[in-house]
Amino acid sequence: MLYKIFCMAINEKLTSRVRELLADVDKVDEKKMFSGIAFMVDAKLCIAVRGDNIMLRIDPAMHDELVEQQGCSAMIMKGKDLNGYVVVDESVLNSKKELNHWIKLALDYNPKAKSSKKKSHKAQ
């Protein structure tokens, strides 16, 4: 099972759809991570395309409500739900409107999200 997770091919179609919706957003960088492509907005993880789903960093206050929606589930890390991160299955992202709805949730939260950027410690 771990082999499958780490060797998953990048979903170029879904990645392109996300990239298109982020084209007019400032400060977007792409990085290979989470067995796919992560979209960092203002140096903060915002969206990641992973296989047949997208992972989104959303307002933790909306987490429980969102995971009740069809095709959406909590991001699980080390066996625990990661509050503020959801996974949305590609099967519910058929239209541009559907995909944009989820991406907008992540973009709306991004300015409030804490940066995960690590500070460098220089030896003195």
Describe this structure in words.
- This protein is of the alpha+beta class and 124 residues long.
- It has a single domain, classed as Aspartate Aminotransferase, domain 1.
- The protein has helices spanning 2-6, 12-21, 63-66, 96-109, and strands spanning 28-33, 36-41, 44-50, 53-57, 72-77, 80-89.
- Strands 1-2-3-4-6-5 form a 6-stranded antiparallel β-sheet.
- Strand 5 (72-77) and strand 6 form a beta hairpin.
How many helical elements?
4
As laid out across the biggest beta sheet, the strand order is 1-2-3-4-6-5
Structural class: alpha+beta
N-to-C order of helices and strands:
HHEEEEHEEH
Helix content: 25-40%
Unreliable stretches, pLDDT < 50, 5 or more residues? 1-7
Q: Do you know the CATH architecture?
A: Alpha-Beta Complex
Radius of gyration: 15 Å
Number of DSSP strand runs: 6
Oligomer: single chain
End-to-end gap: 45 Å
Number of individual domains: 1
Percent range for β-strand residues: 25-35%
Query: What overall form do the CA principal axes indicate?
Result: globular
- Biggest β-sheet strands, sense, barrel: 6 strands, antiparallel
The third-level CATH topology is Aspartate Aminotransferase, domain 1
Give the mean pLDDT.
Answer: 88
